[in-house]
Amino acid sequence: MQVFLQTLIGGVTFGAVYALVAMGFSIVYRTMGLVNFAHGSVVMIGAYAASTFYMASKLPFAVAIIVAIAVTALIGLVIERFLRPLENKDFTLMLIGTIGFGAVLEAGAVLVWGATGHAVPSPVATGPIDVAGIRIPTYSLMVIAVAAAATGLLALFLQRTKRGAAMQAVAMDHQAATAVGIHVGRSNAMAFAIGAGLAALAGSLIGPMLYVNPTMGGTLGIKGFAAAMLGGFGSMPGAIVGGLVFGLLDSFAAGNFQEYSELVTFLVFAVIVMVRPTGIFGEATVNRA
Amino acid sequence: MRFTSFSIAAAALMALAACAPPGQSQSSESNATGPIKIANVNAQSGQLSSLGQWEHKGVKLAIDEANKAGGVNGRQIQLDLFDSQGDPTIGTNVARKISSEGYVAMLGTAESAVTLAMAPILKDAKIPNITSGQSPKLAELKSPFLFLNAPTSVTFDETLAKYLVDDKGLKNIALISNNGAYGAGEHDAFLASLKSRNVTPSADEVVTPDQKDFNANLAKIREQDPEVLFIGAEEVQSGLIAKQARELGLKAVFAGGAPLGTDVYATTAGLENAEGTVVSSPYLSNDASEEIKAFAAKYKAAYNEDARMHVAKAYDGASILIEALKQTNGEGGQKLADAIRGVKRAGLLGNYNYDANGVGIHETKIGLVKDGKVVPETAS
Asked: How far is B218 from B273, CA to CA, in rounded Å?
């Protein structure tokens, strides 16, 4: 029982981060119908930006995260600006463009920060909470809380604000949205910026849990992408559920299947996607590709 | 991804076509007067590039010194760097290239997998290779042209098991290792050393090299309340395991090979969590001896960064090669291999004395991590 609960805690903590990564994938996809393959690298840049500001300038961690979000949101805007001429012209080139940006960001990180990477000291000093032998690291609680708060804010933005509604409209039908006077390009830029901001949030939160280096985005990107597909690509609640399910799947497979855990995780994932190709919360409306 | 594999395949085909008969006949006699050509093959790009760059700096330091001191009996050494990208496929292409271009010897690579892939080609071309890999599989090849500049995992783990079980009397030992090339080697070697002492590990968890969350594995280990947790993984993953183990309240002493002696491990785990970790390594720290202190100062002056084991062993390997070249008067092939085997050198990592399998160092030292730095364990 103890092992089960401890595994659960590990799974939920990483699941919360996967959910943030998955939401970043989904918000770009639902608005533009584009899979942003540079997303994993943006997560990495976010982790670097936050940890560098946090460690070098002694900023409080929360401020460092906000700075990192601003930096990566800017990168998101730049990527979108580069891709805009291709919008509705050559979709494949846009996809390849995002892959290219991923490679550029990774190479850039090696140039700026070096290939070795650095460890980030935990911003929460207190030790883990002990509940009947189950140890819950305080930092994990913080990660889950911040992820939940970010999700709530994003939901509010999408449903309650005019800009958010405009983005939803573009997601549903970009031609109709143009017809009623919504600037599709601006909406896309917004999606890219929010996606990158979410990536930065995920990156900064996971920095102290892992080790920040230029290649860390690879695995996080793949797992976040898989989580988004699992939940239903383009769906925001889907991204959250997908992230958590993927985190739990990952951690329980690690406990029960040892070195075959990755194989089992992705096999289960493949089976779920075969049975439900649209994912758990698949929406037909965002199928623009 | 598909594009890269295409280009690799294309490059491989071109390399194959370019040197279909590996030109070994011309390699040894073609240049008896010009500079002596030595190839340094290491990852200069990709995930393992930091390792490759350290190795190259160590090699270059030794060669530059030798050249300044007059080279090999008056001839200068020409050191050429090849990027293996840490990829065995690219490694084999490089092996064909250097065997056709008149290189007398090769230094590197830092990855056992790449060296293993290159070894058969270098053996056919009679090019001696001093590698920085430390997988027991390298010694198992029994190639007369392959030499290691460090002990294999077997030696690391035998020393560790001797210290933990024989000297300290610790019997409740749990294992956690990854199933990559390095982790699997560590796992097998340490398990064999425990078996020979009639100790059965209380837990034996295997993880994947990419895994980040070890809650499930460590919770299972915690149930056994081990005295020692053996960690068989690379620097970062070892650090993550140590950190999460302490978060789970595991009290066991951490023990493992060279990765646990690095600052990457200590900072990833957190200095407090890494405290007291038992490390088995031939190179414990930059101030373990007077020779090492002098070397570390020299290295710092040349590159403005701190020396480390990877640098030291690359330096040792290059120094051994230079010594052997002086004996053969720059000649390569079988003669050079025999000369390397004959070199007895008190190096930075220990006393080199090569056996038939190409292993030169047969013991490691035990150190303990204090404040993120390894200090030699004096008690044993």
From this structure: 15
Place of tokens 């190479």: A107
Chain B contact for A107 (CB, 8 A cutoff): no
Domain spans of chain B?
30-151+291-349, 154-281+365-376
Which class in CATH covers the domain with range B30-151+291-349?
alpha beta
The ipTM, to two decimals, is 0.87
CATH class of B154-281+365-376: alpha beta
A-B C-beta contacts closer than 8 Å? 97
User: Would you give the end-to-end CA distance of chain B in angstroms?
Assistant: 51
pLDDT tens-place string over residues B147-194: 999 999 889 999 999 999 999 999 999 999 999 878 888 999 999 999
**Residue B12 clears pLDDT 60, i.e. is over it:** no
Residue extents of the structural domains in chain A: 2-286
Residues of B in contact with A110 (CB under 8 A): 49
pLDDT tens digits, B269-282: 999 999 999 999 99
Q: Which CATH class is domain A2-286?
A: mainly alpha
Residue A141 in contact with partner chain B when CB distance is under 8 A? no
Q: Read off φ and ψ for residue B78, nearest 5 degrees.
A: -100, 115
Of B214, B240, B247, the CB nearest to A135: B247
Closest residue in A to B240 (Cα–Cα): A210
Q: Which residue of A has its CA nearest to B208?
A: A259
Q: Would B30-151+291-349 and B154-281+365-376 be classified into the same CATH topology?
A: yes
Q: Is B202 helix (H, G, I), strand (E, B) or coil?
A: coil
Packed helices B333-342 and B309-328: angle between N→C axes, nearest 10 degrees:
120
